[in-house]
Amino acid sequence: MACKRGKHASCSVFRCSNEHKNLFLVPSSESLKNQWLNFMFSGNVPTQLPKVLYACAKHFTDDCFLNLGQYRVGLAERLKIKSGSVPTLLGSVTNLGQQTSAAPSLLMLTSAVDPKKIYTNDVVDVTASSDEDLDMFDQDSVASSVDSTAEEMFIDGLDPVLDRPSSDLYPPEEDCDSEDNPQRRKRSRLSSSADGGGRESENNFSGVSTERWHSLDEADVKPPHIDFKPAQEPGPQILQNRCSSPLQFFHLLFPKTTLQTIVGHTNDYGAKRQQRKGKVWENIYLRDLKSYIALVIYMSMFKCSSLTGYWSVSQHFSLSFPAKVMSYQKFLSISKALHLSDSREDEKNRVRRGTAAFERLGKIQPLYQVIREACKTFFHPFQNITIDERMVTSQARTGLKRCMKNESPNIGYKLFALTDCTSGYTWDFFIYEGKSCSSQSEGLSYESVMALVDENMLGSGYKLFVDKFYTSPTLFSDLLCKKVWACGSVWANRAGFPKTTVNRLSRNAPRGTMRWIRDDELLFVEWKDSQEVQMCSTFHKAYEGDTVQRKVKGDAQPTRVQVPIPAAVLDYKKNMEAVDPSNCITGHYRALHKPKKWYQCVFNHFLDITVENAFIMQELMAKGKNKRPMTRKAFLEVLILELAEISPQDSAPVFSARPSSVVPAFHKPKHITLDNIGGRKCRLCKQTTPVMCVTCDMLLCFQPERDCFNDWHEKQGF
């Protein structure tokens, strides 16, 4: 039930003077209506009642509300109550102690920016709250409420701190974005321009205080230079002779000891699983797990419509390799029992569910840390880096399950990776858990970038490229303090974007038109292409003389002309397009098998990262030795054979140098006379022959000196 409010409505509860903006209409149901009226008039219900009666939100316990968490953090303007709720509290300003034991009082609101900050707007004077009231505040219940809303905004490409409804910040104004500007994510729109009528926000949501937008012909200052000083020499951190085969590169990132640990955990979990069914588990060994991984990679190269198709026994459409590696039943049993953590530790962690000590990623934590550390140990990024946002699909039920609605119809969870733009190497990554205990004072997008950009391990002078979700003036300024440059596309209605409309880019501006504003180290650029492009950068000048070819409408037909392009746009496009977002090796296998355990999906994605990084290191090291690197296809083929411990000579079919002269058995020669010389003429040489092909009904010589029988069949392709 949503709250209602008339133009001059007020609470109808007897002697209630609270001016709360959330008012709820008395329900029409007779039973509920009588309960409401008895409370509102303390049991003395008058015979004549007004047509409309309201009860304000202060008369309801917290468990009556559907969106209390959203309302507390400012993400909902009005409260909603559950069906069947009845007012029970006398919510006067001096009566703050009446609340349910299951939830804190509505009279205390918490901020998403600072959990310790108590907002009192329209609810209660802060001086009325005592220390006991603050101690009674249930942080855990608020955390879950924040997660339920803030996470959903994060997943949809929204930041609960940076992306707020424009009505919360400034008066409604005309949007300055291009009409045909496609939006990859649906965002709440903030005002991007202002004519001086907006009110300031308490959370630094005011725009950049600049006077006007500058044109192309106005010179910009050169930003301060930061020397590129990486902590290590960029590239693979491996001795030249340490790795020579794909399997050796693979084991750098996925060590044998880790695989052996997974074998032990899988056997332990598989035995318990089979024991519950009254069956006996057959232990697997390291060779079995490596063969299993080989088949998962193999399935990315040869796609069948079903998992059983790889073990098909069809005479004409079967694949011989999977059956040679392991049986279908053994592959399926490993898939179902695959376990990455100690079952005993899982039980201990399960008991802690609902407490601060509970570890959401407990079932992948050992492997998670090993892969992350290995990726950072054996490679150091080049100067240009980016944040790569990925989705790992999963049908499993888990607290990590998420849906990237505008990018994929599949259900899954988010993974954020710091990727090298030059090579595509995944240097570091983390899985978004959705914990509210972490600091979110600057927004979730800010925190996700700061969690990946470690200046102590990277060094100084790096250039980070990010998309619209992450770009914010606060983030870029703080990165510059770490001596990390940043460049990214930005929403024109994002908090901190210049609000001035003086000399701003018009909607009908021709292609190549640009405007720019500099606010100390921050450069904001608007450029007109087929649509309006907005950029923010800390290391570019507004214009450095670059041009790009574009079609421009002429009198008769479109013509190609050179138009100016800002350096920030050119550099951003070059580096962001160079990164292939996670070559998904195990994606086809996951689509066929659909693991029911979320950590099995994570294991498959760890294989993606490991194999792709191993291939990149092989490629860079080969180029460093002036050798020709293996292609991706050849690398995967050799890796599959090495994991399955199959020699290339054993798996390759043997073909003779020339086609065999033996005719298939169903082409049978037959003598038509008893005489070896007499008979009719041969179809090929026109000499007499006593032999014919029964299948083809053709007279052909079949003698040592004249083998027309085989010669003719070879020419016919038999």
Summarize the structure.
With 718 residues, the protein is an alpha+beta fold.
Largest sheet data: 8 strands, mixed
So how many helices? 20
Instruction: Look at the structure and give the mean pLDDT.
Output: 75
Low-confidence stretches: 92-148, 164-209, 401-410, 652-665
Spatial ordering of strands, largest sheet: 10-9-8-12-13-16-15-14
Describe the structure.
Residues 156-213 are annotated as: Disordered. There is one protein chain. With 718 residues, the chain is an alpha+beta fold. Among the domains are: 23-125, no CATH class; 246-352 and 597-614 and 624-644, no CATH class; 383-421 and 425-577, no CATH class; 669-715, no CATH class. It has 20 helices and 23 strands. The strands form eight sheets. An eight-stranded mixed sheet has the order 10-9-8-12-13-16-15-14, with helices on both faces. Strands 19-22-23 form a three-stranded antiparallel sheet, with no helix packed on it. The chain has a two-stranded antiparallel ribbon with strand order 1-2. Strand 20 (680-681) and strand 21 form a beta hairpin. Helix 6 crosses helix 9 (328-337). The chain starts with 22 loop residues before the first strand and ends with a helix.
